[in-house]
Amino acid sequence: MGLGLLSLPGTWALWTDAVGIGGTTLTSGTLDLKVDNGDSVTTSTLSMSAMVPGNSSAQVLTLRDAGTAPLDWTVTGGLGGTDAAAYATAGAVKLRLVAGATRSGSGNAATCTGGTVVLASTALTATTSTTLVGTRQGPLASGATSTLCVEITFDAAAPQTLAGLTTTVSLTIAATSDVS
Fold it and tell me: What is the pTM of this model?
């Protein structure tokens, strides 16, 4: 007797099941940095008239995250105006930024007191896009505020050649969502 192959007719079944997942909504956050509750700030508090070497001026700015996402911030800036190059060449206008500081003094003798120095006294260049604070500061949470004291000093060693000349200081505080 020989062996034969047995073949059974029929259907083989593979069972499957699937579950759909829906209702997932993604909404991107917004960045909205405000300085003194505005998108741009014009200040006369930092202005100095009849300044002489060694004078300084200071102002406390309030930074606020009016967006929905936390933010970090950096600062660029420099000197502008007709005589910017003369001031920059002499290294005569210095900027100091202090987080959480207060203003003390008045007029051409105001300074930043207390807080954490974010930028030590640095001579400004004649390029208004110079990176001043490149290391991101923060994070500043949505709805939160912090203060930044801006101190400008006319260097005590400023040369006589700057007498009667004028320059402007421009600063830009930029926000980023990269808070890593």
Answer: 0.86
